Amino acid sequence: MNITLRKIKIVASMSQETLCYTADICLDGKTVGSAYNQGCGGPDDYHFADKAVGASLRAYAASLPPVDMSKYGTEPLPMDLELLIGDLLNAHEAAEHEKKVAAQRKRWCKTKTVFRLKGDDFGVYRTINATYSPNVKSHIVAKYGDKVEEIVNELV
């Protein structure tokens, strides 16, 4: 079964206890229902045009391996449709975040040289107010040596 979400709309400002969202649920590329949460702490709600499809999706989710909770010191959590949809939403949010980060890096690299040193905090970048060139790279390497973790301009 290939379950995906489309038309995902996340409203962070409305998310209080849980993620406020709406999404279409697709099975093998065809929209079969919708999922949403009002963000006030309750469970997700689902609407399927065909109850049999909804039951089939719930059964499929239940057949998946349980969620490993050992890092929290608890027993594995049985997989269900809400956890499966949550995993798809998390993957979507991570991909959207990476797109934003990549776009930000690209903007920075138009007018600056952007780099990181080993030991810098995650997400922290250093800049030189000069467009990237072999001379700027030579300057960075001469100044920081093997502490240079990456020069973002070379990755963009």
Strand and helix map with partners:
Elements: E1 3-10, E2 21-27, E3 30-37, E4 45-48, H1 51-63, H2 81-111, E5 113-117, E6 126-128, H3 134-144, E7 148-151
Antiparallel strand pairs: 1-2, 2-3, 3-4, 5-6, 5-7
- Percentage of residues in DSSP E strands: 25-35%
Using the CA coordinates, give the radius of gyration: 22 Å
Strand order of the largest sheet: 1-2-3-4
DSSP strand tally: 7
Low-confidence stretches: none
Give the number of domains.
2
Largest sheet: 4 strands, antiparallel
The shape is elongated
Overall average residue pLDDT: 93
Helix-strand topology string: EEEEHHEEHE
The number of helical segments is 3
User: Roughly what percent helix?
Assistant: 25-40%
Distance between the termini: 36 Å
- Give me the secondary-structure category: alpha+beta
Concise account of the structure shown:
The protein is α+β, with helices and mostly antiparallel strands and 156 residues long. 35% of the residues lie in helices and 25% in strands.
Could you walk me through the main structural features you see in this protein, from its secondary elements to its overall organization?
With about 160 residues, the protein is α+β, with helices and mostly antiparallel strands. The chain folds into two domains: about 5-100, no CATH class; about 110-155. It has three helices and seven strands; from the N terminus they run E-E-E-E-H-H-E-E-H-E. The chain has helices spanning about 50-65, 80-110, 135-145; strands at about 5-10, 20-25, 30-35, 45-50, 115, 125-130, 150. The strands form two sheets. The chain has a four-stranded antiparallel beta sheet with strand order 1-2-3-4. Strand 5 (about 115) and strand 6 form a beta hairpin. The chain is elongated, with a radius of gyration of 22 Å.
